[in-house]
Amino acid sequence: MQSVSTAEPVVAPASPAAGRGRPKHKGSAQLFQNPVLERLSHTHIALPVGIFAITTVLSLYYGLTHGFMSGASALGLFLLGLFGFTFVEYAVHRYLYHIPATTPGRAKFQYTLHGVHHEYPKDKTRLAMPPIVTVFVSSLLFFIFRLSFGSYAFGLLAGFTFGYATYLFVHYAIHAYSPPKNFLKVWWTHHAQHHYRQDAVAFGVSSTLWDHLIGTMPGKQRSE
Prior knowledge:
Blueprint (H helix, E strand, L loop, with lengths): L34 H6 L5 H20 L5 H27 L6 H16 L11 H19 L3 H24 L8 H12 L12 H6 L10
Helix pairs in contact: 2-5, 2-6, 3-6, 5-6
């Protein structure tokens, strides 16, 4: 893959989201006045991807070596967990990351959580959650899965966190590299519609499945 240029992807023009101007392809926003918090809000993509990948491996290893699942059941649970992640990815992006900014508090929450990414989509240090948050999320997921699914949790969690790691890697690659000249380009094009055409469609990042099923696929480009 080649490093991405700072040129804006070519997509049909549209009005920017309310309260947000054109995306900036250089620089980074300051989210916190406290220098420690501000520093912690940045991360290298390898850290969160690595944490979720390690969680995947440990979950499979522990579940298999302690008799919680066999090889066949581990595969089935893994795939089910991976499938579940694709829906959670879509739902969180659509309903949490794009929560309507109806009050100043909501506007600040939405911008800190996700709006900053739309304003500075090429800021590589804010394409994933910081490591301390990643550890908290992975630990929380384990307890939720263990309480909810018992011994099935290890296979399901492995698939879910593998999906999470894949999503982070795909999202980073889309923003950090030029589109490849093969079938993988569909990911780049799909996500570019969300950033540069209208942010009320194309919520899937690692998969377009739920955009197809729920009806949030980008429409055909129309001349203005």
